Amino acid sequence: KNYYGGNWASFSFSGLLSWIKEKQQEAEVSDECEDWRKLILENEEVICLNNSDKTIEHVEDFCFGNQDSAEDVEEAGALSKLPLFGASGAEGAAQESEKESAPVENTSPGKAASSDPASATEGNETEITSESGSSHNTASGESTSDVGKTEAAPSENSAQEPKKINYSQIVREGRRFNIDLVSKLLYSRGLLIDLLIKSNVSRYAEFKNATRVLAFWEGKVEQVPCSRADVFNSRQLTMVEKRLLMKFLTFCLEYEQHPDEYQGYESGTFAQFLGTRKLTPSLQHFILHSIAMVSEADCSTLDGLQATKKFLQCLGRYGNTPFLFPLYGQGEIPQCFCRMCAVFGGIYCLRHSVQCLVVDKESGRCKAVLDHFGQRISANYFVVEDSFLSESTCKNVCYRQISRAVLITDQSILKTDSEQQVSILRMPPVDRGQPAVCIIELCSSTMTCMKDTYLVHLTCPSTKTAREDLEPVVQKLFNLNTETEKETENEEVEKPRVLWAVYFNMRDSSGIDRSSYNRLPPNVYVCSGPDSALGNDCAVRQAETIFQEMFPTEEFCPPPPNPEDTIYDEEELASEDSGLNSAPETKPDPSPEEGNTEGGAAHEPE
């Protein structure tokens, strides 16, 4: 591939358009496996890998503005004769430099999030640390915070009418977009946050708090009170409802200690259990869809209580909601782990495909791989993502699908005094038999979209094509009229207008048992692509399981050693001393490339 992360990647707007075009025109590449026969020994056989990605289907994109006006418009800062994928090669370096120079709202990595949603305009980037809620301000953050506030401050007319954004502006500001193929949030006490802290990979990323949890109730979008303070300050709830809600949430935090409270309801659904707790219909809806975020039809009572407890335990660690979002998009996370890997000698090769696995006939173990240059690369273990396995290897595998949509809109689905809101809304099923839809709305301070626009991600398990699954929800919440169409109803004017949209189905290969794969060598380990869950626990558990199977005595993602604590053996020190003694007194400064290489070697563990 030309970009990092596979189906976890993020793209600029032009990069995403290139990705869409590639997926819509993707054809089967001719199998050149016969050319490798001369490289294969008599006691070896090959397992061919996929030469095309079949994990993405039914890609449809729509522009609700005038595309003709953008024909001659070029993306600002675009580099000629480079691939449009946002994180590859020299363009990736250009994107990194843009990240440094772009006005970021309160870029202080240690700035703690305010619990007041209205203060989100002032920035709420968060440094994740091992101590709950701990944070600190840095001098560099203070020096840039004023710039950020200027960028984020809402205009005087923001509450009246959104700015008119056209398609040519989106194209011109395309590098301001970082559009994720998969939409997720990080639970503040989830496995991924713990892993980022433990491994010190968190130093490569910055995070923003999700500021609002929303609900769709009685035909309109409302904000759900999460914390104790939110509940008692809420104007949506009566005093009786506030007491009932707090009593139930307190019970959920300690439900294991009170089994008599749910005895007899274990075999029933969580929705049925809520109906027995004297909760009003609105409270039952908020708990089911916005706090537990579980299915009304098939979630058991115990699973619902566990999901509610997880939500409540994550409150307050870094902000007023349980969730964090990485600045510049979810695609930053795999790149952060790549950066840490590179420090200790790991190599990530773009545009370098593997054609087949070389298997020893006697032992049945994989000995090597052959790349598309015909180069043979030997190793003891091989980890391969499911999408690279051929149809013959996966013929007994039954995959699920995820329906995805990404929208660029001109205003938030719930307008407030602050424009800089990161919101999550779980939309109940529109029709019977349809899944609930998870909606994440990102503002420009997340560095995923241009100013005066919002990036909206919709995700659900597939029942049909992505457009068939998600368009009914889009029609309920957004205005799909084009610029030239006259809006006839007041409610259409009030809804956020969709400027551009894409729908696609993505394969969900999580939960596949190893025995389902055909002729898989014992030292080849298969990892899945993204799953449909909101968090990242599945990916973290899978990575740790594979690592422990390969290296049962080693610690998974241990904290990296400090450079001062690195211990060199005597031979290494002697060779360095002899090199220093024979070196001339003056030495030219190393190039940036040489400096990076030397720095990586100095940190390499024994």
From TrEMBL:
GO terms for molecular function: GDP-dissociation inhibitor activity; GTPase activator activity; transferase activity. Keywords: Cytoplasm, GTPase activation, Transferase. PANTHER family: CHM, RAB ESCORT PROTEIN 1, RAB GDP-DISSOCIATION INHIBITOR. Signal peptide: none annotated. SUPFAM superfamilies: FAD-linked reductases, C-terminal domain (SSF54373), FAD/NAD(P)-binding domain (SSF51905). Residues 402-532 form the RAE1/2 domain. It is found in: Cytoplasm, Cytosol. This is RAE2 geranylgeranyltransferase. Residues 116-147 have a biased composition (Polar residues). Its main location: cytoplasm. Transmembrane segments: none annotated. Residues 89-161, 553-606 are annotated as: Disordered. GO terms for biological process: intracellular protein transport; small GTPase-mediated signal transduction; vesicle-mediated transport. Coiled coil: none annotated. Belongs to the Rab GDI family. GO terms for cellular component: cytosol; nucleus; Rab-protein geranylgeranyltransferase complex. Residues 566-575 have a biased composition (Acidic residues).
